[in-house]
Design brief:
mainly alpha, elongated
Amino acid sequence: MSETSPALLRGIGVAMRHLSDRQQVIAQNIANGDTPGYKARELEAPSFAGMVDANGAGRVARPTVQISSEMRALGARQQSSSAIILDENIVETKPDGNNVTLEEQVLKLGAVQSEFTALTNLYRKQMQLLKTATGRGNG
């Protein structure tokens, strides 16, 4: 979407791209469901601060924490810059160290599908409103 698109439509586009990427991560989890030692991954939700724009100028930076040696000694880890993170909401780990549960992943896929459907409907309605407002709508 271009910068001239309404903010709501740009936001819907960002959310749909996030859901598409999340679906790929879930599919990777399912594909590695029997890989020994594999840890389920999740896609980090988009940051609201990253979406805030002050009159088209600079963006608000997401706060970051620098891990000190003392924090590292206590077990803290620096998060990677990638939006793919380890899934912390797991219910079981298999004896081989794999923590992917097919049922959880299928439920997540269902949630992605329902959110994508809701966004598609919202996008369709917004486009119809724009067509109506510009006199190009057919009812």
